[in-house]
Amino acid sequence: MLFLLEDINLKLYGSPFPTAAVITGHATGSGCLFCLCCDYRVMVKNFLIGLNELRLGITFPNWIINIMSNTIGFREAELALLAGRLFKTDEALKVGLVDEDASDRDVALKKANAFFEKLETTPSLARIHTTSILRNRVLEDMQRNMNIHVESALFEMLHPTVQTQIELHLCNLKKKKD
User: What does the alpha-carbon distance between residue 32 and residue 42 come to, in Å, rounded to a whole number?
Assistant: First the structure.
């Protein structure tokens, strides 16, 4: 499963085709990662986005730290990752974690389509080449160290302390639903 998640992120981040995330619900953990791997992010108001794995005792691999740092800047990424911070839509917009906000799903889809329409005037080969240059370092790290990332994540997730944290987190989520 972890190999599949990392492989999806690798393909999404390295895609020669433009990508956009239309976020219509909470995007935490892997959901946030999928969004970070897209070229453009539009998020409906009143939801949360972020990477809170550190709260559970799970360490972030280099590529996640680099993508987050490239997106919102080093210091903001450092503070957010170390705190396991989840951003409300307006906060995510302010720090650059998302590019636009929207009142609802339909408006978000229109904004994502407008992003794609803007790209139609850009020569695709130049866009593909520039994107590749910008993302090359992170993509190489992802490819070169995928086995290490997955093994490390599995080791941490199976650790009794992390299992306890995950169990507490799930219990808290269940209490919030009730």
Answer: 12
